[in-house]
Write a structure and sequence with these properties.
With 414 residues, this protein is α+β, with helices and mostly antiparallel strands. The chain has one domain: Outer membrane efflux proteins (OEP), CATH 1.20.1600. The protein is 69% helix and 10% strand. The chain is built from nine helices and six strands. Helix 3 packs antiparallel against helix 4.
């Protein structure tokens, strides 16, 4: 009774494990999981909140000040009637144009911070896609090498049986065993590499599944073929956009430095008590202007530095435009070459190498070819399959690179 119960539980656990293993996660789903789970996204939201707080601090005026003054004279003195009491509430205000520019500067800093966090998301997405294609590539290679090991082992067994029947030479039998051992070694190494790549992907995206299947990302990437007309420019490159923000910020800083000569304002309300007056209690208001007396001695260096920083940021932006254009053009050329190679591999080379292997095996069984011909055909077919997977992975990596340069997200595609 207990044995049957334990057996039933084990069968249920095995079915659940198989169900998880059969679950397929697309590359888009992997990105969504990572975006919802990765700690970088949580920290990005905190950084944006910090920048919003900085915006409020930058435009907030100085805190108002309240002061109470008392000037007393000892009792019995002839001046006792001249004691004073004064309550003052004062507020300092900077020149409105300075406040406006400070707000514009802080707002641009906030916008840059928000955009920086979107760039972090793009980098995170690119990392997930790289890990996904790496795991997919290793999974496909492991599958191919496992199939190859099975086929080579079966063929080696057949050659051994033929040798025992006197239908094959000892050389062919020994050579077949060597090929089988080599195929086993490659297969076992591929199993470890696949496990490492899958574990890296699972840890990075934080999925709840311990095992799942991956799909070929190129199957749903219809726009990426050798005949596609690609844009000649990088589009909204994230680094260029950040450089634009830096240039604007440097401009605001320069203007703020030049506006330091403008006066600050002060307004205050006071209540005062003077016993010598007929009406000893009265109130009043005061207005003041504070002008920096030593402006040209203290600020000329800062003005010169801010102007230089603005020129530097502008030069860096224009230099980045050139570098980005070259980077995009190089990546675009690589993508077109890999697209041609991928089509040639899948449409021509792979089918031809498969037919060549089948023909070699058939010719060997008829005595029209040697076992070395079969081994060579088997290796060519194996290399063709592995090359096809490698080209597919490199092709998708070039797509990742182009998307990153152009600031495109896989989640925003129709």
């Amino acid at each position: 009774m207990y044995y049957k119960l334990i057996l039933a539980i084990l069968l249920i656990i095995a079915q659940i494990a198989n169900a998880f293993a059969d679950h397929t996660i697309t590359i888009e789903e992997a990105v969504k999981i990572a975006v919802s789970n990765h700690p970088l996204i949580s920290s990005s939201n905190a950084v944006i909140d910090e920048a919003k707080g900085g915006l409020l601090s930058a435009v907030s005026p100085e805190s108002p000040q309240i002061a109470w003054e008392y000037e007393g004279v000892p009792s019995g003195s002839q001046l006792a009637d001249y004691e004073e009491r004064r309550l003052t509430l004062s507020q300092e205000l900077e020149f409105p144009l300075k406040t406006y520019l400070r707000y514009s500067h802080s707002k641009t800093v906030l916008n840059r911070t928000i955009y920086e966090q979107s760039v972090i998301r793009l980098d995170l997405e690119a990392q997930v896609r790289e890990l996904y294609i790496e795991a997919w590539e290793k999974s496909e290679i492991e599958s191919i090498l496992s199939q190859n090991f099975k086929a080579v082992s079966e063929y080696a067994d057949n050659i051994q049986k033929a040798y025992e029947l006197g239908e094959a030479s000892l050389f062919d039998a020994q050579r077949a065993k060597v090929e089988a051992y080599s195929a086993r070694q490659l297969s076992e190494s591929a199993i470890v590499e696949k496990a490492v790549a899958m574990d890296n992907l699972i840890r990075f995206i934080g999925t709840e599944f311990d095992a799942f299947k991956l799909e070929n990302p190129l199957e749903n990437a219809a726009p990426y073929s050798a005949d596609t007309v690609y844009p000649s420019e990088a589009g909204e490159n994230p680094e260029l956009k950040l450089a634009e923000y830096n240039s604007k910020i440097a401009g605001y800083e320069k203007h703020l430095t030049y506006l330091n000569w403008l006066p600050d304002l002060e307004i205050s309300y006071f209540q005062q008590h003077l016993p010598v007056e007929n009406d000893p209690d009265y109130w009043g208001m005061e207005f003041g202007i504070n002008i920096p007396l030593w402006f040209w001695l203290g600020q000329r260096g800062e003005m010169k530095s801010s102007k230089a920083r603005m020129r530097i940021s502008e030069a860096e932006y224009h230099n980045l435009v050139i570098e980005t254009a070259n980077e995009y053009n190089t990546a675009l050329g690589k993508l077109k070459i890999l697209s041609k190679n991928y089509e040639l591999s899948t449409d021509e080379i792979l089918p031809l190498s498969r037919k060549t292997l089948e023909l070699a095996k058939k010719s060997y069984s008829l005595g029209e070819a040697s076992y070395l011909d079969v081994i060579e055909a088997q290796r060519n077919y194996l290399e063709s399959r592995l090359d096809s997977i490698e080209i597919a992975a490199d092709l998708y990596r070039s797509i990742i690179q182009l998307d990153r340069i152009s600031g495109k997200s896989i989640l925003n595609r129709p």
